[in-house]
């Protein structure tokens, strides 16, 4: 993450108070919502360079890159911590986060319940407790240890705040906990007047009412060329013990809107790591099931989009997309059917709206990228292997209908 020199950023006046992004289903870096159509994440130089040199053919399969923004940590009068972005003067148009914002309400509730009391620094108190309890474990690992941990903790917190089952489950808690871990690290490593640089990226789920998202970790190798021997061994074990080795793809998180219960069914990366090849297939089936029926009409447009991506990846010589993810997205809000007495004549059936996007390029390498000591020839074989297997499994599901 890029950190700038100290400055006097002031308070939240004139800035954009960033919200936790409630549709983050995987990853460990905090993704935050900048406005209705833009998210931001901590800037990693290699990822920024990738977006700036992105081949034209890949642009429709990646989020639009919107530049960078300066961010600083800010604490309000009640002790609540936030990250505030300061856009360039020529680009100061942004939405204001209202006090009633769902994400802000949930985040403030989370802060209030993580401290030992109602003091002015609840997150700092929580951070001190975590260091005392888990001396050898990072705050991120302590928070994101298991699906059981975050689902039970967040369910009880949302029960205290809202009381109703539907509201408790109306969001994915993963993004909130990534944000909490990120703020905890910033509190530990940097003073509050430090400025940080974040990437601004297209919010690819903004067109969807109830975005159903599948986060797939692609490829048979997940470590970058610059990984330490310890990190390399750790990632190789994860691949060997999961479907990354046999299929070249594993589930890294998902949320699926359940129309019968009006909430998201959420799965995290720990769920995905334990799946066998058959379990992976069942996970794909679950992603396509809305609690009432399987959305079979989604299979063909997803397959067409994946086939188009496969063609593009095969044409990208020297690229290696180590540790990148692939998002498959559709709307849990089904289109209304035409009633017999409708004003407009029925139209020919249209392809269901889906999207497929590549994300997370902090370890991507390619010939000509800055300071690369290792270069490769030809397209990424591990990514292609995973994409071909994913397409094959979805075709099998389609044929079995």
UniProtKB/TrEMBL annotation:
Top-level EC class: transferase
Keywords, in A-Z order: ATP-binding, Kinase, Nucleotide-binding, Transferase
GO BP term, pick one: inositol phosphate biosynthetic process
Gene Ontology MF annotations: ATP binding; inositol hexakisphosphate 6-kinase activity
GO cellular component: cytoplasm; nucleus
Keyword ATP-binding annotated: yes
Gene3D superfamilies for this protein: Inositol polyphosphate kinase
Similarity section: Belongs to the inositol phosphokinase (IPK) family.
Protein name listed in UniProt: Kinase
């Amino acid at each position: 993450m890029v950190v700038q020199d100290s400055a006097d950023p002031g308070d939240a006046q004139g800035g954009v108070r960033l919200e936790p992004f409630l549709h983050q289903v995987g990853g460990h870096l905090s993704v935050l919502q900048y406005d209705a159509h833009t998210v931001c994440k901590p800037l990693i130089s290699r990822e920024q360079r990738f977006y700036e040199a992105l081949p034209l053919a890949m642009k429709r399969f990646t989020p639009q890159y919107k530049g960078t923004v300066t961010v600083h940590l800010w604490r309000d009068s009640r002790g609540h911590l936030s990250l505030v972005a300061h856009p360039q003067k020529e680009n100061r148009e942004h939405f204001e986060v209202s006090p009633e914002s769902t994400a802000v309400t949930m985040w403030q509730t989370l802060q209030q319940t993580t401290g030992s009391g109602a003091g002015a620094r609840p997150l700092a108190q929580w951070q001190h407790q975590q260091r005392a309890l888990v001396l050898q474990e990072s705050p991120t690992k302590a928070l994101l240890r298991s699906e059981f941990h975050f689902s039970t903790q967040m369910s009880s917190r949302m029960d205290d705040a809202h009381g109703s089952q539907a509201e408790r489950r109306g969001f994915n808690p993963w993004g909130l906990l990534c944000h909490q871990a990120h703020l905890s690290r910033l509190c530990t490593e940097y003073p509050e007047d430090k400025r940080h640089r974040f990437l601004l990226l297209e919010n690819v789920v903004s067109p969807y009412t109830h975005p159903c998202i599948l986060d797939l970790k692609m490829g048979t190798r997940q470590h970058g060329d610059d990984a330490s021997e310890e990190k390399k061994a750790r990632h190789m074990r994860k691949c060997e013990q999961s479907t990354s080795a046999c299929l070249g793809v594993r589930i890294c998180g998902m949320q699926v809107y359940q129309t019968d219960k009006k909430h998201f069914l959420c799965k995290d990366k720990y769920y995905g790591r334990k799946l066998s090849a058959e379990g992976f297939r069942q996970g794909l089936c679950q992603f396509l099931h809305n609690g009432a029926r399987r959305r079979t009409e989604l299979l063909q447009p997803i397959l067409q989009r994946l086939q188009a991506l496969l063609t593009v990846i095969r044409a990208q010589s020297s690229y290696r997309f180590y540790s990148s993810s692939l998002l498959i997205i559709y709307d849990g809000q089904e289109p209304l059917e035409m009633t017999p007495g409708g004003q407009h004549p029925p139209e020919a059936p249209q392809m269901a709206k889906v999207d497929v996007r590549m994300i997370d390029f902090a370890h991507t390498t390619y010939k000509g990228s800055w300071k690369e000591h290792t270069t490769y020839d030809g397209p990424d074989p591990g990514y292609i292997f995973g994409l071909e297997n994913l397409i094959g499994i979805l075709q099998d599901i389609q044929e079995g209908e």
